[in-house]
Amino acid sequence: MKSCNSFLPLFIALAVLSRSVFCYEIDTYDFLMPNVWPNKDEVYLCTPIRIAPQKNFYVVGFKPNATMHTAHHMLLYGCSEPGSNDSVWSCGEMQSNELDSHYNTASPCASGSQIVYAWARDAPRLQLPKDVGFLIGHDSSIKYLVLQVHYMTKFPAGKTDNSGVFLEYTTTKMPRQAGVFLLGTSGVIAPHGIEHMETACTINEDKVIHPFAFRPHTHSLGTQVTGYVVRRSEKGDTWQVLGSKNPQLPQMFYPVVNTSPIMKNDVLAARCVMNNTHHHTVQIGPTNNDEMCNFYLMYWVENDTPLSQKYCFSAGPPYYYWNRAPEAFDRIPDMDVNIL
User: Fold this and answer.
1) Is residue 69 annotated as part of the catalytic site, yes or no?
2) What is the mean pLDDT of residues 273-277?
């Protein structure tokens, strides 16, 4: 069993890769569930590792060790403090505090929560661009990594699971730090209704971020997830698509369509087209709701730290206008988003 007091090893499965004009050593850490038993349907389980505090590490690649038949999706959180000191705990963020005789319940992070990586639907390996890495350890607010796996179906007694991800990392300093910005919505969809769930937030930090990958995420009812960057000017708003994808395809990080830098006062926005095929109302929201509507944007910053802003969520049923500055936005302009 893993413990939150275990350190990330310095040298495991050594390899040498060329990513730039120089070569640097890449090590691999097997971050896997410690043979857990999902003892009921729709359970979210978390397990942590503590990063060796005296050094910096840069995560530069992710190789999933999971299948969609076992794990609905996986999230890798960076935390200042983990949600629990247990080696495994139940970590559905919105689930009730029902007593579970097998696992205690807590959030993935007690403080400093941010998304580092996400996977679903048999998505392949993710390799970051050259000279780009997620900083963890000494000079980072990420002191722990927490792996969360969503199991939709209860396992029979005696069957366990070790789904997870192989982390590729280096101790060589990367000049470009990676970050993830997550946009999501919450609310309801009427029976047999179609909704456009939307959210938007203004970048309020004086940083320049360079988008390079995006990931859509819904459960079974999403038909299209699209992200946008909006630049405000006296001449009007300029909308550009960052990426658009059917979330029923492998939910990998895809290359963005527009790699132009995003700056302070630009707006990041997202829309999910949701088709409720059920006879009942469907709840949209964070973990442990019927459905989810998320757009993940992965980016890098040059010789700087990532955004302090990590999340953008809207709230309010049932039909969505742009959030966090409603006077600044009309409805989203009609755009051809079937581009990937």
Assistant:
1) no
2) 91
Q: Which two tokens stand for residue 273?
A: 């087209």
Residue 91 contacts residue 63 (beta carbons within 8 Å): no
What string of DSSP letters covers 242-293?
EEEE-TTS----EEPS----B-TT-EEEEEEEEE--SSS-EEESSTTSSB-E
Contact present, 340 and 214 (Cβ < 8 Å):
no
Q: Choose, from 219, 224, 251, 252, the residue flagged as catalytic.
A: 219
Catalytic residue among 68, 72, 309, 335: 72
Beta bridge partners of 199: 270
Measured CA to CA, the distance from residue 332 to residue 322 in angstroms comes to 8
Q: Which residues contact 33 (CB under 8 A, 6 or more apart)?
A: 45, 47, 88, 147, 149, 161, 162, 163, 164
DSSP 234: T
Contacts of 260 (CB under 8 A, 6+ apart): 229, 240
Residues contacting residue 333 through CB under 8 Å, at least 6 positions apart: 239
Of 228, 178, 232, give the one whose Cα is nearest residue 204. Answer: 232
Query: pLDDT for 111-146, tens place per residue?
Result: 999 999 999 888 899 999 999 999 999 999 999 999
Identified catalytic residue from 33, 73, 114, 174: 73
CA-to-CA distance for 148 and 143, rounded, in angstroms? 16
Total-model pTM: 0.85
Q: Which of 217, 252, 274, 298 is catalytic?
A: 217
> How far is it, in rounded angstroms, from Cα 71 to Cα 73?
5
75: tokens are 């999230």
Catalytic: 150?
yes
What does the pLDDT look like over 27-75, one tens digit per residue? 999 999 999 999 988 899 999 999 999 999 999 999 999 998 999 889 9
